[in-house]
Amino acid sequence: QGYERKSTATGLATRLLEQALPVRVGLEPGSGEGFVQGLADNPQQLLEMSEYGDFLSKTRARSGGNYQAEIKKKLMPAWDGRRLSRKLSRRTVVCAHPRLNILAAINQALLSSESEWHDWEGGLNSRYCIFFAYRERRQGLGKGNPAQEEALVEWLKSVASTPDSMYGKCLGLTNAAEREWTDFNVAVDESGLLLPDDKFIGVYGRAPIHALKMAVLIELAEGSGFPTQPPGSPNPIEGQDFRVGLRSMLVAIDFATRCFMGAVAIFSGVEGTRDMQNRRKVLDAIGDEWTPIGRITRRAQLLKKSLYPILETLVAEGLVEESREYGLDKAR
């Protein structure tokens, strides 16, 4: 909408990666098969979706089928690093170890209108680290930081060019970090018990995992496990094995908490907006004539268990009339 500056935010990260490792920037897939092929050709990649609403719209399930809907089914195993394959007539295309990242941005109205319930309940959206924010400052001219950008680009190049064998291994958490993470795990689980329904399970169930992964990344960003280059030495020294410390864990937990609360705020808003949209769908499906329940269901594209409570509310409000003529439920 030109106000949230979503594309500006995602574009900055993508631009840095393009400068350092252009091969790691992937192209948005057009089909499930193309998605697998793209990962087979380039297992490590970042997909930028600055208009995630467009992606959700294209991949929605539709009556009669939608070949692009298969992309969503492939996303989850790719996120989890599981093997993906597609069978051709003479060979099988395989991506054994996908390493996929997605940087997406969307406003709440589009998230409400274009996402499907199983995107939340099935675990797709819970795999994201979700941030929910409003702009609170006035528009202004941003100031770039070329020196900082150049340093980040050079750091990315250095990390990518260093063999994995040169890095130290993460041996787990320190005792203090483990206690903090365990307490956070329990707190998230207890707060999950207070949530209104099971639609939030994926959101709060993954919060501790987000914290754990982020803690490792923060520890690495601080230099743990990295090989060193002593002054005057032609060869670097292998990085030392390390454990995630309390400081990194505290920052990671704060990060995961923001994601958790942001996801709950978004979902609550989406749920409220979706109810209003479904009411409008039902009213449009009924029109001005007597309309059988089956036709309303097809036109509104709602299951009966979702449709009936809406109809009962609309009848109670006097917005529609109900008829049981000839044993067939109708409304207008």
What does this structure look like?
Helix 1 crosses helix 7, helix 5 (108-114) crosses helix 11 (246-286) and helix 8 (175-192) packs parallel to helix 11. The protein has helices spanning 6-20, 32-41, 52-58, 70-79, 108-114, 117-121, 146-161, 175-192, 201-205, 207-221, 246-286, 293-300, 304-316; strands at 44-49, 84-87, 92-95, 99-104, 170-173, 242-244, 291-292, 322-323, 330-331. The mean pLDDT is 82. The strands form four sheets. The protein has a three-stranded antiparallel β-sheet. It is mostly helical. It contains 13 helices and nine strands.
Helix and strand string, N-terminal first? HHEHHEEEHHHEHHHEHEHHEE
Strand content: 5-15%
Low-confidence segments, given as residue ranges, are: none
Separation, N- and C-terminal Cα atoms: 37 Å
Using only C-alpha atoms, the radius of gyration works out to 25 Å
Shape label: elongated
Number of helices: 13
Helix-and-strand structural type: mainly alpha
**Mean pLDDT across every amino acid position:** 82
The strand line-up of the biggest sheet is 7-9-8
Main beta sheet: 3 strands, antiparallel
Proportion in helices: 40-55%
Number of strands: 9
Task: Jot down its keywords.
mainly alpha; 3-stranded antiparallel beta sheet; two-stranded parallel ribbon; 13 helices; 9 strands; 10% strand; elongated
What is the secondary structure topology, with strand pairs?
Layout: H1 6-20, H2 32-41, E1 44-49, H3 52-58, H4 70-79, E2 84-87, E3 92-95, E4 99-104, H5 108-114, H6 117-121, H7 146-161, E5 170-173, H8 175-192, H9 201-205, H10 207-221, E6 242-244, H11 246-286, E7 291-292, H12 293-300, H13 304-316, E8 322-323, E9 330-331
Parallel strand pairs: 1-4, 5-6
Antiparallel strand pairs: 2-3, 7-9, 8-9
